Structure formats: structure tokens, C-alpha cells
From TrEMBL:
It holds the Pfam family DUF982. It comes from the Bacteria. InterPro entries: DUF982 (IPR010385). This is DUF982 domain-containing protein. The lineage of its organism: Bacteria, Pseudomonadati, Pseudomonadota, Alphaproteobacteria, Hyphomicrobiales.
Length: 87
């Protein structure tokens, strides 16, 4: 059995998950875990696409950059994305 290899994001993504508070998501594995266990809105197209792309990235079919991009789009759609570049 192949072991999925985590891929680190070039820049972590900050999301605000209600009672969970702010969370920095720094890798594909963390993004997938966050989507599956802490996401407020699991029925949007962006959510489903982000889950699929994160799985593909862990299996080596997609880049971490593509997974990050999909995760950010899902976060924006769910209203939990925090722009960490605005310092």
C-alpha cells in the first residue's frame, strides 16, 4: 500500500472557523482534515472540488499549489477565509 505524502503550502492559509477560532493551514493534509472535520458548509461545488484536489495532491496527481488554490476558493465561498497578507 502506498503511503500518501503530505505536501507543504508555500504560504499557509488562515481560516476562521467559528468556535474553533483562527487556524493556519500549512499543508495539503491539514487542508483536507480541516475540510472534512471543521468545515461549516460541505455542500458547495468549491468544497467538493477542494476535497478532490487535496486527495489528488496527496496521491501525487496534483501540486500543493493547486490544492492550496482550491482550498482558498472553498474558504472564500464558505466565508471563512482570512486574508493574512493584509498586515
Amino acid at each position: 500500500m502506498d503511503v500518501m505524502e503530505d505536501k507543504t503550502f508555500a504560504t499557509p492559509v488562515m481560516v476562521s472557523l467559528g468556535a474553533m477560532g483562527l487556524r493556519f493551514v500549512a499543508s495539503v493534509w491539514e487542508a483536507l482534515e480541516c475540510l472534512r472535520n471543521q468545515w461549516p458548509q460541505q455542500d458547495s461545488l468549491e468544497y467538493k472540488r477542494a476535497v478532490r484536489i487535496c486527495k489528488d495532491a496527496l496521491e501525487g496527481w496534483m501540486s500543493a499549489a493547486k490544492a492550496r488554490q482550491a482550498f482558498v476558493k472553498a474558504a472564500q465561498r464558505a466565508g471563512v477565509f482570512v486574508d493574512s497578507s493584509a498586515k
